[in-house]
Amino acid sequence: MSMHTGAPVGVGVPLLDARERVTGAVPFVGNMRVPGMLVGRVLRSPLAHARIRSLDAAAARAIPGVVAVVTAADLGRETGPVLHYGRNVKDQEVVASKMVHYVGEPVALVSAETEEAAEAALAAIAIDYEELPAVYEALEAAQPEAPRVHEGMDSNVFVHAKLRHGDVDAGFARADAIVEETFTSPVAQQTSLEPHVAIAQWADDALTVWTASQAPFAVRTALAGVFRVPEPSVRVVVPPIGGGYGGKGGMRVELPAAVLAWFSGGRPVRVLLSRAEEFVTVTKHAASITIRTGIRRDGTLTARQITCHWGTGAVVENSAALVRGALVRLVGPYRIGAVQVDSYGVYTNLPSAGAYRGAMSSQATWAYESHTDALAKAIGMAPVELRRKSLIRSGETFATGETLHEVYFHECMEACLAKLGWDAPLAQPGGHLRRGRGVAVMMKSTNPVSRSECRLELGVDGVLTIYTGTVEMGQGTHTALAQVAAGELGLPLERVRVQGPDTALVPFDTATNASRSVGMMGTALLNAAAALRERLAGAAAPLLDLPPDQLSVAGGAVASAGGRSLTYAAVLAGAGLPSLDATGEHATNVGLDPETGQGVGSPHWHQGAGACEVEVDTETGRVRVLRYVGASFAGRVINPDLARLQNDGNVIYGMGPALLEEMVFDAGRVVNPNLSDYQIPSLRDTPDWLEGVCIEHEEGEFHGIGEMTLPPVAPAIANAIEDAIGVRVRALPISAERVLRELDA
Amino acid sequence: MDYHRPTTVNEALALLARLGDDARVLAGGTALAIMLHNRLVAPDALVSLERVEGLRSVEGTPDGGLTLGACVPIAAAAAHPLVRRHAPALAHAYGVVGNVRVRNQATVGGNLAEADYASDPPAMLAVLDARVRVAGPSGERTLSVGELLVGAYETALEPGELLTHVEVPAPAPGLRAAYRKFTSRSSEDRACVGVAAAAALEGGVCRSLRVAVGAACEVPTRVPQAEALAVGQPLTPALARRISEAYAEAVDALDDLRGSAWYRRRVIAVEVRRALEEVAG
């Protein structure tokens, strides 16, 4: 049996649903109307930390059109939803019972026939709060005397992850220079254009939820836990979604929708967050990272010590795993004699932080790649030369003690430098404008433990259907999977269909996150395709009167060496089969020792780089990114057009937190919870010239590229600014005002 | 909420008189919709100007001035041949408002009546000596832009009054004008600092100079003593610097998400100078 890898892989075909995306025909959850659907709304805490003295919802319940008002008193009974829940730590309540811990925390839920009735009910719920001291900054919250975010806890630090590799003291002692710097990143927004939205309906003790989620199976598990029902009683359906960026990676809006539906007598309930609610639902972790490195005059890095405080908000959700996972994302892609990392997850009285495209790596790369330029400066070496000397290579040992393979940091960086024209003279426009160039390289882990299953079903009509839990969110993974399947079975792309996430129809997948889908689901698909070819050969064998191992399955037909062949449809018809299916799986299970951070940090290491040219107005501090090249290691590219869009999209997205984005708080209340006061890049802010490179290698595997060119953006820009005007910005965003203050300093 | 669609100015005035404080005037709605959404206002009625006749045209006056109806969309004002010919800097100021979606919807009159300090056109209108025509229960009156805008989101319009037209006088001979919008964040942000400048130049000598700083302060701010420095002088780089520094010192700069007062004063010094360099050619 020979394997067929057909033309579709490596070809730039448009997104399967490109036409629908452009014409507005994508069936987003927000456009769905289920008969009898009610409006679900959440009443939220106006205070960052307070005790609820009393809550009276009687008036709200009496409003005409109001169907259900849910308060903590309705929860945690013998049946129905529990009160307390949490992904790692049960530190969340469906609605607050006695205390609120951040502005925006749910305190009551309302379902109603109309928006107006729901609105009136929210206004009619009377709550008396006793305000308590609050703490907003992670470093401050980590102090022993800081007010506790949750009563009765010894400390606001809920996790302290450690990595210990080699003798850092000895390393520092050997150094010719030691550089220590602190870099900060503020709380920011994932900013999906489509907000969180879910519709939930109960029927016969079974729950169906239609939701815009990146993690349908995780949502199913979480909802089953809240309602104490078996997982098969919960069906989660995810149509294509309008962006996620990590913010839709766990149960959020599905919970109030399902709880309200439970209390609404079988009526479906929709909860659609406003933009302001988005800002208090999930955020990017604030980070303060102190990094100290010893370096010898020849560029040898002798030791590195990193201390990072992550502000997580008032609930952990997935942050314990993210803060632990950050250990290996904080180090940087370098050969370093000894490494020590302390990564602290800290509760604050702010909205919850979660994954954010390039999770933790964006904050980490901002620190270590800005720092690389400072190290180069300290020994009088060009920043690129230091990277050439110190970037880690295949076969070398990383700070986790593991030997790295498939290492392409050098190639990523060199591709950027070559494309940008790093060595070409830089024309200075003169006057108050100064130009400079900068580069940055990043190394990121993917989920250490995760699993994807994929089922393929070939119909008697010759149409192949892919059953996959991978969420299509505009990144094009359904298109890429269809291309792979078409190639593996030698079918034209038009004969391949994709059945996306519906937990009643598709097999398990961990989540569409951490750029894992083409690698994990793609490999599961390859395995399913191999199994399906085998089944096809087995079904054709009696028809062709040959043993299966003498048959080849390719090009839509099963063939013998002698030239006899049957189309797939003929095989199924001849064998009397209505369809033929096969399932493939791919799982990874690696990890680190919890005390030392030694082990295997990631089944595959994400690699990316960026180089740019910026222009700084020295009178106003305004920075323009003139030219930018991003490179990612892709293994093998499935669709070069979509890969290019991922690279470019990462850069444009990354320019937001680099230059503009920051959630601003006043006593824990977001003061800019809209897209006028909170600015994301406009198309007019994109570089005049933007290029992307995907590094491939022969026989390469599929690797995700959904994040690789994002984390280098901020440090590449900061390094270019220093090259241009000689000042170093260490706090994000690199606002015009910040640059001007540094110029004055 | 009741929704009224009068067809004449008089009908609109009668409705406003009858409904009093419970009503709000709706023109393009780009500002009002956000205020409603954020519950900053909760009127019982909206009086929409969408069907009111006579508020949607741009006309030239015999002496070379312009009259813009209050309901002319900002995009239309920016693109109108008469505006581009008689007041190209004003066309530019209209052209840099918000983004294309806002410009297609927002109106010339609504833009002034909202009195949003971060808006671009008011500073330009102020230096062009524009006046607004206001219809009210006791007849019609006209106000200068400076008289109209009394504070951030605050105008001199009386209850029941309707801003109907914007009148831009004919440019003085040799008038050169410029508007500079400085954004500190994204390119589609509202201005951090806006500078409008108009100089009447004769043989390289400045006969008169008007400069207004907007977006950095509650209302477009002119500094007459600084403007006077230019009269009878060529607009040299040194003079431009002196004037811009005087503005930086005199303007009561605001602190907001687009910049601190310190930063705005720094940018005012830069952008006033650059505006003067533009008008000096």
Overview of the structural elements:
The complex is a heterodimer of chains A (745) and B (281). Chain A is 27% helix and 27% strand. In chain A, strands 3-7-1-14-11-12-13 form a 7-stranded mixed sheet, with helices on both faces. In chain A, strands 9-18-17-16-10 form a 5-stranded mixed sheet, with helices on both faces. Chain A is globular. Chain A contains 18 helices and 32 strands. Chain B has 281 residues and is an alpha+beta fold. Chain B is 36% helix and 26% strand. Chain B has 12 helices and 14 strands. In chain B, the strands form 4 sheets. A 5-stranded antiparallel sheet of chain B has the order 4-5-10-6-7. Chain B has a 4-stranded antiparallel sheet with strand order 11-12-13-14, sandwiched between helices. In chain B, strands 1-3-2 form a 3-stranded parallel sheet, covered by helices on one side. In chain B, strand 12 and strand 13 form a beta hairpin. Chain B is globular and about 60 Å long. The model of chain B has no long low-confidence stretch (mean pLDDT 97). The interface between A and B is medium-sized, with 20 and 18 residues.
